[in-house]
Amino acid sequence: MSNRFFTFVGGDTGPWRVCDIRTIVGHGMESVSRVEIINEDLQQTPAGAAWALRGVVSNQRYTNRSELDSLKAVQPSLGRTEATCAVLIPITKSSAWWELPQDERREIIESRSAHIATGLRYLPAVARRLHHSRDIGEPFDFVTWFEFAPQDTAAFYELVTTLRKTEEWRYVEREVEVRLTLDQK
Ligand code: HEM
Predict the structure, then answer these.
(1) Residue 182 in 3-state DSSP?
(2) What is the CATH number of the domain that holds 102?
(3) Alpha-carbon gap, residue 44 to 7, rounded angstroms
(4) CB 116 within 8 Å of CB 161
(5) How confident is the model at residue 179 (pLDDT cuts 50, 70, 90)?
(6) pLDDT at 71 over 60
(7) Partners of residue 89 on adjacent β-strands
(8) Tally of CB atoms within 10 A around 82
(9) Alpha helices, DSSP H only, in the chain?
(10) Which tens digits make up the pLDDT trace of 60-69?
(11) What is the pLDDT of residue 1?
(12) pLDDT, tens digit, 9 for 90 and up, residues 7-51
């Protein structure tokens, strides 16, 4: 990773073709046909693009040692040849969430919602990268990115459905799901 900043540009160029954009909660996003991921902190939306979502890869906040070891043992990297499906899910949590102390947020995320334990069951099928956006003045708090092979599509949406029923997701006030496929070269 040359730097930790990424910009997801929605427009009509880029290798990822948009199949569907679904508004899960809150305001939606403008419809686009393609997404390009740029490993830079773009300050302006490129000409001709409808939106640009920026985020930075950061340190872990909630993951404990044994979870980190389990993740490292099974998590695949992005860009696998067979992983031609992707989902971009920008998410904003409520002010009630951000007012909670760290230990209570960990309680909700893991002790009561089992986010990490549930997610681990879908590895190594799903590769992912979490980008933090809240502290860089973005409209979303997080930009999440997932890649998997076509045969793992149903499993991925099963995971998303499970997470959205958890206590953690009661704090999600904006969420959009952008479903993509990679153009074969
Ligand atoms: C594919 C399996 C998944 C695994 C293994 C996984 C794992 C994790 C881990 C370990 C963290 C905590 C990072 C930290 O310590 O700061 C995290 C955070 C997060 N994940 Fe997942 N996750 C998965 C799927 C998902 C999905 C499908 C979504 C969205 C629908 C999602 C959205 C998020 C968000 C928004 C955060 C940040 C939460 C916060 O800091 O408040 N994750 N995930």
Answers:
(1) strand
(2) 3.30.70.3420
(3) 10
(4) no
(5) very high
(6) yes
(7) 144
(8) 11
(9) 65-74, 95-99, 102-106, 115-120, 153-164
(10) 999 999 999 9
(11) 58
(12) 999 999 999 999 999 999 999 999 999 999 999 999 999 999 999
Q: Which domain holds residue 143?
A: 5-182
104/85 Cα distance (integer angstroms) = 34
CA of 31 to the centre of ligand 1 (A): 25
How remote is the CA of residue 115 from the centroid of ligand 1, in Å?
A: 7
CA of 61, closest atom in ligand 1: 16
User: If you count them, how many residues does the chain have?
Assistant: 185
Q: Is the CB of 125 under 6 A from ligand 1?
A: no
What value does the mean pLDDT of the chain take?
97
Q: Answer whether 178 contacts ligand 1 (Cβ < 6 A).
A: no
Position 58, amino acid: S
State which amino acid sits at residue 137. Answer: G
Nearest ligand 1 atom, CA 164: 30
At 181, the pLDDT band (50, 70, 90 cuts) reads very high
Task: List, in order, residues 6 or more apart from 123 with CB less than 8 Å away.
Answer: 71, 74, 75, 76
State which amino acid sits at residue 134. Answer: R
Tally the domains of the chain: 1
Sign of the CA dihedral running 56, 59, 61, 67: positive
